[in-house]
Amino acid sequence: MGENGVGKNYYPQGGAAAAAMEVSSVEHGQAGGSKCYDDDGRLKRTGTMWTASAHIITAVIGSGVLSLAWAIGQLGWVAGPAVMLLFSLVTYYTSSLLSDCYRYGDETTGKRNYTYMDAVNANLSGIKVQLCGFLQYANIVGVAIGYTIAASISMLAIKRANCFHVKGHVNPCHISSTPYMVIFGVAQIFFSQIPDFDQISWLSILAAIMSFTYSTIGLGLGIVQVVANKGVKGSLTGISIGAVTPIDKVWRSLQAFGDIAFAYSYSLILIEIQDTIRAPPPSEAKVMRRATLVSVATTTLFYMLCGCMGYAAFGDDAPGNLLTGFGFYEPFWLLDIANAAIVVHLVGAYQVYCQPLFAFVEKWAQQRWPKSGFITGEIQVPLVSSGFKLNLFRLTWRSAFVVATTVVSMLLPFFNDVVGFLGAIGFWPLTVYFPVEMYIVQKKIPRWSSQWVCLQLLSLACLIITIAAAAGSIAGIMSDLKVYKPFFTTD
């Protein structure tokens, strides 16, 4: 893929050795024909619109879909779907802008930007590059924590569903989520040894299938509940004053914005996904725009159906997590299948999100200590496929990262509040601001032209939404911390 270390032909930037390898690979490509190498001397990319769509769907239709019924419950039948549609349109539009920044200059022959940070560096430079890197990688760490929490809640829900089935719904069935976080962490240590994006396509496709599985089950259970209720619950304005205090109504509504933003968050890995797409024609930007359209349209349809049907089924009592909040108790085996699908999906989504961070750290280490056998050496693993090689630094640092995020997840197992906060802090800078600013530079849009003004107004509006949503989520987390005891909280 690219110089970020995500691709198979990674080597650090700069230096005679790197330049020699670049020339050698290009010459090899010319000798062996263009079937082997792309225009930048890397092994030929093989991704298509469908593999890119699978990566996006894996990243987008994540745990966020399960909180949408609650989010619509705070906003009501009018504002809820409207806000969801608004976020989908903004995400599609800014993702299209960002996809144009994969190549600097001409979209078919310009210099490739292999990572989000590369694109920012090529178009903006200066302090904005460091700011982008901090926000991107901090958000990835946050997503890893959020997915660990969500996966443990789903595993715990399987145990509780079986408990409720045997002991009755009045039994509290208190179970600690900590052991399940450990189980998920152990699984991620294993899967995190997959070197790069090229080798996790199968995991993304499996995860995308799982996301459709549990979303469909949630939708079906919602429809059944609406039929059983003999009507649709909910109101035009959402949860009413009286059921919650006026200030809680405000905070919860703002948090709902963060939850919806999180459900559409994937821009921070868009460039890395685009770098898997095969070379033109057509251009990578055109393929990525089609993949984005297919993915965002598909996810929005599922979000509308699942979120609205969940709210219609439970009204103001819609749980924070549709399949683990136990609005549904039966059939317990169907809930088990749905929650198992969530866990499998989150295993893949965790890897899709974390690959850019893994690659960044490994690239930096190889540039800093190029002669270290611990960092650059590889060991052939005979028990696995012949193509798999184990790197000791990758094993050590990725395992340490998984352990760290797992421990933090144990300290902060607040699904809705954490999801809302992550969605809020990542939405404006990574999904809106940087794509807009890079597009303005890339297309040389004149300052104070009508297009420039419109893009800046879009960015300003999204900044206001981000600040408000972050405030609501922080208020929710502070409220949770008042009654929480680390490592002892049970669900």
UniProtKB/TrEMBL annotation:
Please state every residue range assigned to the domain named Amino acid transporter transmembrane. Answer: 45-478
The coiled-coil regions, if any, are none
InterPro entries from the UniProt entry: AA_transpt_TM
* Record keywords: Amino-acid transport, Cell membrane, Membrane, Symport, Transmembrane, Transmembrane helix, Transport
Cited PANTHER family:
OS05G0424000 PROTEIN-RELATED
Which positions, given as ranges, span the membrane?
49-68, 75-94, 134-158, 178-194, 200-224, 291-312, 332-353, 395-415, 421-441, 453-478
Subcellular localization, per the record? Answer: Cell membrane
Instruction: Name the Gene Ontology biological process terms.
Output: amino acid transport
Write out the similarity annotation. Answer: Belongs to the amino acid/polyamine transporter 2 family. Amino acid/auxin permease (AAAP) (TC 2.A.18.2) subfamily.
Q: What is this protein called?
A: Amino acid transporter transmembrane domain-containing protein
Q: Which GO terms describe its molecular function?
A: symporter activity
Source species, domain of life: Eukaryota
One cellular component (GO) term of this entry:
plasma membrane
Main location group: membrane
